[in-house]
Amino acid sequence: MDRIALNGMRFFGYHGVFPEEKKLGQQYAVDVELHLDLTQAAETDDLNHTVNYAELHAQVKTIVEGPPFNLVEALAGNIASRLLDAYTSVNAVTVRVTKPHPPFEIYFDGMTVELYRKRDEHEQQRPAGR
Questions:
Q1: What residue stretches are annotated with the Dihydroneopterin aldolase/epimerase domain (predicted)?
Q2: Which residues are catalytic?
Protein backbone atom coordinates (compact mmCIF):
# COMPACT_ATOMS: atom_id res chain seq x y z
CA MET A 1 0.00 0.00 0.00
CA ASP A 2 1.25 3.48 -0.87
CA ARG A 3 1.45 6.32 1.63
CA ILE A 4 1.22 10.09 1.76
CA ALA A 5 2.76 11.53 4.92
CA LEU A 6 2.66 15.03 6.36
CA ASN A 7 5.17 15.23 9.19
CA GLY A 8 5.85 17.88 11.78
CA MET A 9 2.74 19.98 11.28
CA ARG A 10 2.54 22.51 14.12
CA PHE A 11 -0.65 24.01 15.49
CA PHE A 12 -1.65 25.92 18.61
CA GLY A 13 -4.44 24.34 20.61
CA TYR A 14 -6.10 24.38 24.03
CA HIS A 15 -6.39 20.66 24.79
CA GLY A 16 -5.93 19.07 28.17
CA VAL A 17 -7.55 18.07 31.42
CA PHE A 18 -6.14 20.90 33.53
CA PRO A 19 -7.75 24.37 33.47
CA GLU A 20 -4.42 26.10 32.73
CA GLU A 21 -4.01 23.98 29.58
CA LYS A 22 -7.39 25.14 28.28
CA LYS A 23 -6.56 28.75 29.22
CA LEU A 24 -2.93 29.05 28.08
CA GLY A 25 -2.80 26.49 25.27
CA GLN A 26 0.35 25.21 23.62
CA GLN A 27 1.78 23.97 20.36
CA TYR A 28 1.02 20.47 19.15
CA ALA A 29 3.00 18.50 16.58
CA VAL A 30 0.95 16.30 14.26
CA ASP A 31 2.08 13.64 11.79
CA VAL A 32 -0.44 12.04 9.45
CA GLU A 33 0.07 9.07 7.14
CA LEU A 34 -2.61 8.18 4.63
CA HIS A 35 -2.51 4.65 3.22
CA LEU A 36 -3.99 4.50 -0.28
CA ASP A 37 -3.35 3.34 -3.83
CA LEU A 38 -1.38 6.01 -5.70
CA THR A 39 -0.92 4.06 -8.93
CA GLN A 40 -3.18 6.30 -11.02
CA ALA A 41 -1.64 9.49 -9.63
CA ALA A 42 1.85 8.22 -10.46
CA GLU A 43 0.82 7.20 -13.97
CA THR A 44 -1.31 10.23 -14.91
CA ASP A 45 0.35 13.09 -12.99
CA ASP A 46 -3.20 14.23 -12.16
CA LEU A 47 -4.10 15.77 -8.78
CA ASN A 48 -7.59 14.25 -9.02
CA HIS A 49 -6.07 10.80 -8.39
CA THR A 50 -4.43 11.65 -5.08
CA VAL A 51 -5.06 13.67 -1.93
CA ASN A 52 -4.29 17.37 -2.04
CA TYR A 53 -1.93 17.82 0.90
CA ALA A 54 -2.81 21.52 1.27
CA GLU A 55 -6.43 20.49 1.88
CA LEU A 56 -5.27 17.71 4.20
CA HIS A 57 -3.23 20.23 6.22
CA ALA A 58 -6.23 22.57 6.43
CA GLN A 59 -8.47 19.75 7.73
CA VAL A 60 -6.00 18.87 10.50
CA LYS A 61 -5.50 22.54 11.39
CA THR A 62 -9.26 23.06 11.78
CA ILE A 63 -9.46 20.18 14.26
CA VAL A 64 -6.36 20.99 16.34
CA GLU A 65 -7.13 24.71 16.51
CA GLY A 66 -10.85 24.07 17.06
CA PRO A 67 -12.83 23.16 20.17
CA PRO A 68 -10.64 21.62 22.89
CA PHE A 69 -10.48 17.97 23.86
CA ASN A 70 -9.50 16.74 27.30
CA LEU A 71 -7.34 13.92 25.94
CA VAL A 72 -4.76 13.84 23.17
CA GLU A 73 -6.22 10.42 22.35
CA ALA A 74 -9.57 12.05 21.57
CA LEU A 75 -7.87 14.73 19.47
CA ALA A 76 -6.00 12.10 17.44
CA GLY A 77 -9.12 9.97 17.09
CA ASN A 78 -11.11 12.92 15.79
CA ILE A 79 -8.43 13.67 13.21
CA ALA A 80 -8.39 10.02 12.06
CA SER A 81 -12.19 9.85 11.77
CA ARG A 82 -12.47 13.14 9.93
CA LEU A 83 -9.81 12.14 7.39
CA LEU A 84 -11.41 8.75 6.73
CA ASP A 85 -14.76 10.49 6.23
CA ALA A 86 -13.28 13.15 3.93
CA TYR A 87 -11.12 10.95 1.70
CA THR A 88 -12.88 7.82 0.49
CA SER A 89 -9.79 6.67 -1.42
CA VAL A 90 -7.87 6.31 1.87
CA ASN A 91 -7.83 2.74 3.19
CA ALA A 92 -6.19 3.54 6.53
CA VAL A 93 -4.69 6.45 8.42
CA THR A 94 -2.00 6.77 11.06
CA VAL A 95 -2.14 9.88 13.24
CA ARG A 96 0.57 10.91 15.70
CA VAL A 97 -0.07 13.86 18.00
CA THR A 98 2.72 15.07 20.26
CA LYS A 99 2.08 17.36 23.19
CA PRO A 100 5.57 18.74 23.75
CA HIS A 101 5.04 20.44 27.11
CA PRO A 102 2.62 18.64 29.43
CA PRO A 103 2.08 20.69 32.61
CA PHE A 104 4.18 18.51 34.91
CA GLU A 105 7.53 18.87 36.58
CA ILE A 106 9.05 16.18 34.40
CA TYR A 107 11.54 16.57 31.58
CA PHE A 108 11.18 14.79 28.27
CA ASP A 109 10.47 15.61 24.63
CA GLY A 110 6.72 15.37 25.11
CA MET A 111 4.07 12.69 25.04
CA THR A 112 2.85 11.19 21.79
CA VAL A 113 -0.32 9.31 20.96
CA GLU A 114 -0.31 7.24 17.77
CA LEU A 115 -3.55 5.81 16.35
CA TYR A 116 -3.96 3.56 13.32
CA ARG A 117 -7.46 3.32 11.89
CA LYS A 118 -8.64 1.21 8.96
CA ARG A 119 -11.58 2.16 6.76
CA ASP A 120 -13.50 -1.11 7.29
CA GLU A 121 -13.27 -0.74 11.09
CA HIS A 122 -14.22 2.94 10.84
CA GLU A 123 -17.30 2.12 8.76
CA GLN A 124 -18.44 -0.43 11.36
CA GLN A 125 -18.10 2.09 14.21
CA ARG A 126 -20.16 4.84 12.54
CA PRO A 127 -23.50 5.62 14.16
CA ALA A 128 -26.53 4.40 12.22
CA GLY A 129 -27.83 6.88 9.69
CA ARG A 130 -24.46 8.39 8.75
A1: 4-117
A2: 99
Residue 101 has pLDDT above 60, yes or no: yes
- Which domains does the chain carry? 2-125 (3.30.1130.10)
Residue 35 has pLDDT above 50, yes or no: yes
Residue 130 has pLDDT above 50, yes or no: no
Alpha-carbon distance of 6 to 79, in angstroms, equals 13
What is the Cα–Cα distance from 100 to 90, expressed in whole angstroms?
29
Of 1 and 35, the one with more pLDDT: 35
pTM: 0.87
Alpha helix stretches (DSSP H) within the chain: 19-24, 39-44, 53-64, 72-86, 119-125
